[in-house]
Amino acid sequence: MRAEILTSLRRVLRDHRRGFAIWAAALSAITFFYMSFWPTMGQAMVDAIEGMPQGLMAAMGYDRIGTAAGYLEAVVYGLLGPVLLLVHGIALGGRLIAGQEEDGTLELDFAAPVSRARLYWERLAAAWLLVTGLVAAITLAVLVSNPLFDLDVSPANVVAAGVGLWLLVGGFVTAAFAVGAATGRRGLAVGVVAGLAVITYVFRGVANAAGIEVYAALSPLSWFLRPDPLANGLDLASTLQLAAITLVAAPVGLWRFRRRDLMT
């Protein structure tokens, strides 16, 4: 594949290189910072929350916080990682076509002889590369923290959790990107997909607290965390469920983008 056919992808990566570096450094530092609390605060945290209702502890993912893997799941993979990555990623997905269409900068790509499909796939690939780098930053921080703070979590399982986080965040980024490409409205794309992300958190909390399995079945966050990748490794069924978000959203967004009048 010749380099010149990746013009749009390379432009996106170039435009976001500084932001990416800041986010990667911040995510690594935050992960390392919270992991450093484990040796001294593990039992103290258990004592502090033991008076909480069991349903509330389960809803917040704190029911296993007394173990290193449980602490890691609750803090990094159940809260900080997904929340920060989804905030950044959904905004990114909504901006890469819809946002730049609204501010007129997307015309720079269409000035070259480039098809809509090629522009769509190159920009989506760029979004996934940025997400991959950020998830890798978190995963590397956990792998470094593992021996330093005696977490005693299998490195292979840390990688498995990273794969699940990557597919979860990438799916929502793809959905925001697809809605933006389909409608040309950044605000709508970000609002709709951010709302779905909130719902997936709510559904997971309700499923954990009340044991209502239908909510777990409807929550991508539950698809990611319920198989307990930090203890059990990669789960094929949940991996396919998470991948399905992208496999459905991406072609639907392209179908609509190719037929939409970009002049309106």
Description:
The chain is 81% helix and 0% strand. α1 crosses α7. It starts with 6 loop residues before the first helix and ends in a 5-residue tail after the last helix. The chain has helices at residues 7-15, 17-35, 38-49, 54-60, 68-103, 107-110, 116-148, 155-183, 186-210, 213-217, 220-225, 229-232, 236-259. It has one domain (3-259). 42% of the residues are buried. It has 264 residues and is mostly helical.
Indicate the topology.
Blueprint: H1 7-15, H2 17-35, H3 38-49, H4 54-60, H5 68-103, H6 107-110, H7 116-148, H8 155-183, H9 186-210, H10 213-217, H11 220-225, H12 229-232, H13 236-259
Task: Provide keyphrases for this structure.
264 residues, 13 helices, 0% strand
What form results from the Cα inertia axes?
globular
Order of helices and strands: HHHHHHHHHHHHH
How far is the N terminus from the C terminus? Answer: 34 Å
Give a count of the beta strands, DSSP E runs of length 2 or more: 0
Which range does the strand content fall in?
under 5%
Helix content: over 70%
Largest sheet: number of strands, sense, barrel closure: none
Sequence stretches where pLDDT stays below 50 over 5 or more residues: none
Q: Return Rg in Å.
A: 20 Å
Number of helices: 13
Averaged pLDDT:
87
Structurally, the number of domains stands at 1
- Structural class by secondary-structure content: mainly alpha
